[in-house]
Write a structure and sequence with these properties.
With about 230 residues, the protein is of the alpha+beta class. It is built from nine helices and seven strands, in the order αβααβααβααβαβαββ.
Length: about 230
């Protein structure tokens, strides 16, 4: 077991006003977790900055305290976060989750709306379903820190004070739902909204999932047009 695997984890808010301290490590965690090519950060950073300004935006991070030696390794050096956000100069950001209130002028909202229509949902029912929800935009844990239920703690913190009726997300389809992300979402009661959807500009199939809020209420299947 590496020292990073054994490091204690702290879950804490990521304030918008301190984004200059956490945004680069958070996007690096995202790129690494998604196995995207190096250099993808330059395309994602402006988008994440735009999201921070959206109504209802909230973010949480998972921080691991590393030894000074570990924190200087190239693998971890880009995850380091400065004080005052970090409690010490050896804290690294190993997980991130954020989202905001969904709205009709947002690209993701329009994509889901068009997908529901193509699936046969009536326009009025699709608009009603999308009237009051929190979009879970990103939830990622660095591969070196996975397998410790960090994603579950991040999600619980992120959703703990939301006032929307439901939370919705999209995630890549995988065979037999066989990865940690799918296991987490199913364990927390997320049900299918729309499956095998292809976003504009991305050939991979995605699933839209959702569940009612609050998170600690009994999970129930979401119904469209009821």
């Amino acid at each position: 077991m590496s020292r990073l695997d054994a490091a204690p984890i702290r879950i804490a808010p990521l304030p918008a006003e301190l984004a200059h301290l956490w945004l680069d490590p958070a996007v690096h965690t995202y790129i690494t977790a998604m196995n995207y090519p190096r250099g993808s950060e330059s395309h994602r950073l402006p988008l994440w900055r735009d999201h921070i300004a959206r109504p209802g935006w909230t973010a949480y991070g998972a921080f691991a305290t590393l030894s000074r030696l570990d924190s200087l390794r190239p693998t971890y050096s880009r995850l380091r976060v400065q004080t005052p956000l970090a409690l010490s100069d050896t804290e690294a950001l190993v997980g991130v989750a954020y989202g905001y209130r969904g709205a009709g002028d947002q690209w993701w909202h329009r994509q889901l709306y068009s997908g529901l229509l193509r699936a046969g949902v009536r326009p009025d029912d699709a608009r009603g379903f999308l009237r009051d929800y929190f979009e879970l935009t990103e939830l990622h844990v660095h591969p070196a820190a996975q397998g410790r239920r960090i994603g579950e703690h991040l999600l619980a913190s992120l959703l703990s004070r939301r006032t929307e009726a439901k939370v919705l997300l999209s995630t890549p389809e995988v065979a037999d739902e066989g990865n940690r992300a799918w296991g987490l979402y199913r364990r927390l009661g997320f049900s299918d909204v729309l499956r095998h959807f292809t976003f504009v500009g991305d050939a991979r199939p995605f699933a839209f999932l959702g569940r009612p809020l609050p998170l600690d209420a009994p999970a129930a299947d979401l119904e469209i047009g009821c």
